[in-house]
Amino acid sequence: MKPAIHPDYRTVVFHDTSADTYFKIGSTIKTDRTLELDGKTYPYVTVEVSSESHPYYTGKQRIVDKEGSTARFNQRFGRFFSKDPS
To answer: Could you name the Gene Ontology cellular component terms for this entry (predicted)?
Structure first.
């Protein structure tokens, strides 16, 4: 590997502020903030959404439309695309 061209890969603490959860993940993100966790100092980044708080991953996803986009399309435009010439 060539020296001095690769980003600094290290363990970073990500804090999901909406779920108040901390994740230690390897990353190359640049940050000046640090956090002491488990007796060690890590680079620190806050995020608003993660797998702990996103509705898709938590199962709390709202279903806005019950019939689906295909049925809604056919209801609005089906008469234009039907094979019946009437």
So the answer is: ribonucleoprotein complex; ribosome
pLDDT at 34: 95
pLDDT attached to residue 43:
96
With b meaning 16 or more CB within 10 Å and e meaning fewer, what string describes 53-85?
Answer: beeeeeeeeeeeeeeeeeeeeeeeeeeeeeeee
Q: What mean pLDDT comes out for the span 16-45? A: 93
Cβ 26 vs Cβ 9: under 8 Å: yes
Token output for 13:
């603490």
What torsion do the CA atoms of 11, 14, 15, 21 make, to the nearest 10 degrees? -70
**CA proximity to 22, closest of 9, 36, 8:** 36
Residue 41 makes CB contacts below 8 A (sequence gap 6+) with: 34, 35
pLDDT in tens, 49-86: 887 877 776 676 666 556 677 777 777 787 666 665 55
